[in-house]
Design a protein that fits this description.
The chain has 487 residues and is of the alpha+beta class. It folds into two domains: 3-233, Methane Monooxygenase Hydroxylase, Chain G, domain 1 (Up-down Bundle); 242-486, Alpha-Beta Plaits (2-Layer Sandwich), CATH 3.30.70.1660. The protein contains 17 helices and eleven strands. The strands form two sheets. It has an eight-stranded mixed β-sheet with strand order 2-3-1-5-4-9-10-11, sandwiched between helices. The two termini are 45 Å apart. Belongs to the prokaryotic/mitochondrial release factor family. GO terms for molecular function: translation release factor activity, codon specific.
């Protein structure tokens, strides 16, 4: 960046970018190092060595975020809880603005035309970013988020909070999560305003290189903020967790078992495409083809947030490869998804006396010891009748530990649904495995189409869907669900 332009902007402090951060920078300096007087930093223009170093830093900062802005963020992380509440309440109430008073809401209200990203139009980029920020706020339910954050901050100040460590940990985690979301949105607004200010300064000084560089930075931000839109869809309490995905064949014998195997393979390929770890926890093979049921563990950030969109019955229509008469068959497979909660987040305490543990020989090809010892384990929670099994590990102890983890997740899911006064998604999805309860249809004959019956989103490339390209269906459902919640 041009040091001359930045120095001139600094000299025009009432209307410059840097002047907006003067008071908060003084506060940061005085709080972080009492020996340093804030007047030594900004009080005089007679200390060019200090100003030059700050301009040099800004010149090297390609993202366009100023030094003072970074210090403001550092200050907010290091101050007391009371100051943090005050700082973020103020930030949420007062939007940042450009030197001439332009805010993100004003950009949206101006309705600047949004052109293709290839067009080098800064107003187009700014308008697209402002619209994205507005959408993120809507998906995060911004006003409710601010109220909830204030409530949590108040609870964290109570001296007896940690008398109940489990409850305190839950409050602390939720507070940290909401604080992170608020920081994210405030940071996006601030970055957009700074880019616009730089472009206007560059035009005022006729510095075409600086203007071009700032427009490119704005374009980069426009592209990256789209990812934040997606993350805002996954704002649920457990959306960031890993998960278990279970697929169970419906009525229809070999045809349905084969279809259940295809659905499970689809999810394995989807998870691998997203870079998630996939582990087979339990699998009961069909006599001829496919599976009767199977459970996989999907490890990765937001695995549950995405996979929860797949809960329900999946219907297949095709010419059966197992029918000598080549007739058309309809098959069903049910999918259930449960989150894997972290330590200390479990909703149900399992008592050993409530468990019935059965040991049996694992099926499948196995290894040296897999089929000659009773290494497979099935655990039944007697009060609820919920079961979990694992036969994938070589030792009985490992299988028992894996089965217990699955059982814990299913009981947690059941308890969460009960607390919300809803039917358990897990139970419902595996029992309503028939006509009228399907969420998606996969038609391979007489035409080819995959259609989500909840959103009406459809594609004709059935092969790509069965190979794991289901993100469009997931995003369509999540967006539709979020829009309905915000109505």
């Amino acid at each position: 960046m041009s040091s001359n332009i930045l120095r001139k902007a600094y000299n025009k402090r009432p209307s410059s970018i840097i002047s907006r951060y003067q008071s908060i920078s003084k506060l940061f300096l005085s709080s972080s190092n009492p020996q340093i007087q804030s007047t030594d930093f900004y009080s005089s223009i007679d200390k060019p060595q200090h100003h030059a170093s700050k301009f040099e830093f800004l010149s090297k900062n390609a993202s366009g975020v100023s030094l003072a802005s970074n210090k403001r963020l550092n200050f907010s992380c290091g101050c007391s809880l009371n100051n943090t509440r005050l700082l973020f309440s103020t930030q949420a109430a007062v939007q940042p603005s450009t030197a001439d008073g332009l805010t993100v809401d004003a950009i949206v209200a101006n309705q600047w035309t949004i052109l293709d990203e290839s067009e080098s139009d800064w107003k187009s980029h700014a308008s697209a970013i402002a619209q994205s920020i507005r959408l993120i706020k809507k998906r995060l339910q911004w006003e409710k988020l601010k109220v909830r954050l204030e409530m949590l901050s108040f609870q964290l100040e109570k001296p007896d909070l940690w008398d109940d460590p489990v409850h305190a940990g839950k409050i602390s985690r939720e507070h940290g999560s909401l604080m992170g979301k608020m920081k994210l949105v405030n940071g996006l607004e601030q970055e957009l305003i700074e880019h616009i200010d730089m472009i206007k300064l560059a035009r005022e000084e006729e510095d075409h290189d600086l203007e071009s560089e700032s427009v490119k930075a704005l374009l980069k931000m426009r592209q990256s903020v789209k990812e934040k839109e997606l993350e805002a869809l996954l704002a649920g309490e457990h959306d960031s967790c890993s998960c278990y995905i279970e697929v169970q064949a419906g009525a229809g014998g070999t045809e349905s078992m084969d279809w259940a195997g295809m659905v499970m393979q689809m999810y394995k390929m989807w998870a691998e495409r997203r870079g998630y770890g996939v582990t087979v926890v339990d699998e009961m093979r069909g006599e001829i083809a496919g599976i009767k049921r199977a459970t996989i563990k999907v490890d990765g950030e937001y695995a549950y947030g995405y996979a929860k969109a797949e809960v329900g019955a999946h219907r297949l229509v095709r010419i059966s490869p197992f029918d000598a008469a080549k007739r058309r068959h309809t098959s069903f497979a049910a999918v259930a998804v449960t989150p894997i909660l972290g330590d200390g987040s479990h909703h149900v305490q399992i008592n050993e006396s409530d468990l019935r543990i059965e040991r049996y020989r694992s099926g499948g090809a196995g290894g040296q010891h897999a089929n000659v010892t009773d290494s497979a384990v099935r655990i039944t929670h007697i009060p609820t009748g919920i079961t979990a099994a694992c036969q994938n590990e070589r030792s009985q102890h490992q299988n028992k530990a894996s089965a217990m983890a699955v059982l814990q997740s299913r009981l947690d899911q059941r308890e969460m649904a009960r607390q919300a006064q809803m039917n358990s998604q897990y139970t419902q999805s595996l029992t309503d495995n028939s006509w009228g309860n399907q969420i998606r249809s996969y038609v391979l004959h007489p035409y080819r189409m995959v259609k989500d019956l909840r959103t009406n989103f459809e594609v004709s490339d059935t092969d790509s869907v069965l190979e794991g390209e289901i993100d469009d269906f997931i995003l369509s459902f999540l967006t539709d669900s979020m829009d309905k919640e915000n109505e």
